[in-house]
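It is worth pausing here to work through a concrete case rather than discussing structure prediction in the abstract. The textbook approach is simple: state the sequence, then state the predicted structure, then interpret. We follow exactly that order.
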Amino acid sequence: QVKVVESGGDSVTDGGSLRLSCVVSRLFGNYYWGWFRQVPGKEREAVAVIYTSGGGPEYTDPAKGRFTISQDIAKNTLYLQMNNLKPEDTAMYYCVAGLRSGGNWRSDQSFMYWGQGTQVNVSS
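Step two, the predicted structure:
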């Protein structure tokens, strides 16, 4: 059974930085993995994605220039370095893995495996 576990969420002030980590277990071969986020009452929003064999990365507009997705394949670990955080970045951040064939990575319906989430709070 595939297991996805995130960590690294915390509370920071405007302009601060955080690095999220995600370990994916028992998922073999090459696959897309990435990050989504969700604010209560709103839909889940794609943040960034990368392919294990090195394709990508891709970012949505809110993440461009501030967030960096990276991976350590030997450790089965995905990272999201977030710099210059803003209050509007406050959300639950989810690690995702396993893009469905033909799926659009920006859609939350496209990934097979999700973690439980890690909370990021940015105060002004």
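Step three, interpretation. The first strand starts at residue 3 and ends at 7. DSSP finds no helices and eleven strands in the chain.
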